[in-house]
């Protein structure tokens, strides 16, 4: 057996010691881990970043969602051939023609029904002076409804100094119950039979506006109320004359002339109705009445319809029977006078 010397053993032991010696390089590497809780400023910064991310996400969602909805809406309605206008229904209660309304509304077959601005169409048609109200609606998938209500004329306006003549489609003006002015579009018998309001002191009227002259407006109110009161009776107004600022003179086609106070139109019509009812049994035609007076109303009579019933001549009295017959009209006349004096 070979004897091992110390030197060799020392060499081997030296290599082993070097091999088994721990790595001294790790002595200068030190990992520092701070396990303490983060400070409040760091926590605030992290929360702020989180909120910023959330807000940006919400903004992106708010922007993208409407865009997506608009894109889908356009694809469904505006680019859909099923919503092409194929039928245009126009209803009117006056003289306006369907072609005229369609031209003013700027609507024709073939347009996209969903692209039509209904409010704009209503405004365009409502600009016509004869139009009172317009209603425009869609009826899916391909129909547009336009309903027009025209102004109903109650009288013609006449002003000789301004050259305004009744029955003239170019120079004449019609008035509705509210006093709005418009031209006549169809001069038929019904239009020619309308009452006439004659005035001499008015400003130049404008089509589509409301007349501001108070006597003319009172005359319009008188015509409308008289037609309602005497509906079904032969009491048709032919002309209303506006001569001053406090009264108007109304001429009926039956030959009756009535003077009304502008501030007592309703009361005057009531008094006239009472007078006509009381004089009807007497078979006497009333020629004129001044209902502008509140009491002691002046009344004039025309030629009696039945001369045998009401005689204005003195008759000789021969018997008691004849005397009683002749006294009967006097009693009726006294009764009528008492009514008129009482207002």
Q: Work out the helix count.
A: 8
Biggest sheet: strand arrangement: 6-5-4-7-8-9-10-11-12
The percent range for strand residues is 15-25%
Number of strands: 12
Question: Termini distance?
Answer: 169 Å
SSE succession: HHEHHEEEEEHEHEEEHEEH
Reported CATH architecture of the domain at 81-150: Roll
Instruction: Indicate the mean pLDDT.
Output: 80
| CATH fold title of the domain at 81-150 | Ubiquitin-like (UB roll)
Q: For the record, what is the CATH homologous superfamily label of the domain at 81-150?
A: membrane protein fhac
Characterize the largest beta sheet: strand count, sense, and whether it forms a barrel: 9 strands, mixed
Low-confidence spans = 309-329
Going by helix content, strand content and strand pairing, the class is: alpha/beta
Shape: elongated
- What is the radius of gyration? 49 Å
Which CATH class of the domain at 81-150 is shown? Alpha Beta
User: Approximately how much helix is present in the residues?
Assistant: 25-40%
């Amino acid at each position: 057996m070979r004897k091992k010397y110390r030197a060799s053993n020392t060499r081997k032991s030296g290599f082993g010691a070097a091999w088994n010696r721990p790595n001294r390089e790790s002595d200068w590497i030190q990992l520092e881990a701070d396990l303490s809780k983060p400070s409040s400023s760091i926590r605030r910064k992290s929360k702020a970043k989180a909120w910023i991310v959330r807000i940006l996400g919400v903004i992106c969602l708010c922007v993208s969602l409407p865009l997506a909805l608009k894109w889908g809406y356009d694809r469904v309605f505006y680019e859909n051939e099923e919503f092409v206008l194929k039928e245009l229904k126009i209803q009117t209660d006056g003289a306006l023609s369907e072609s005229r309304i369609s031209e003013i509304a700027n609507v024709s077959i073939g347009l996209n029904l969903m692209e039509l601005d209904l409010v704009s169409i209503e405004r365009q048609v409502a600009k016509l002076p004869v139009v009172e109200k317009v209603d425009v609606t869609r009826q899916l998938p391909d129909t547009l409804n336009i309903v027009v209500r025209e102004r109903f004329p109650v009288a013609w306006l006449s002003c000789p100094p301004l050259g305004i003549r009744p029955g003239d489609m170019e120079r004449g003006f019609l008035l509705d119950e509210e006093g709005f002015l418009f031209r006549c579009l169809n001069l038929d018998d019904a239009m020619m039979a309308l009452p006439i309001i004659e005035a001499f002191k008015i400003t130049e009227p404008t089509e589509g506006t409301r007349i501001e002259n108070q006597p003319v407006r009172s005359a319009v109110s008188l015509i409308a109320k008289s037609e309602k009161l005497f509906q079904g009776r032969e009491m048709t107004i032919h002309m209303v004359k506006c001569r001053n600022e406090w009264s108007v003179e109304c001429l009926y086609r039956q030959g009756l002339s009535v003077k009304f106070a502008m501030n007592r139109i309703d009361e005057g019509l009531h008094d006239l109705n009472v007078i006509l009812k009381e004089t009807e049994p007497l078979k006497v035609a009333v020629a004129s009445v001044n209902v502008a007076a509140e009491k002691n109303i002046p009344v004039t009579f025309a030629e009696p319809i039945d001369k045998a019933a009401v005689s204005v001549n003195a008759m000789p009295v021969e018997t008691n029977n004849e005397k009683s017959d002749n006294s009967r009209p006097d009693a009726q006349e006294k009764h009528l006078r008492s009514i008129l004096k009482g207002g």
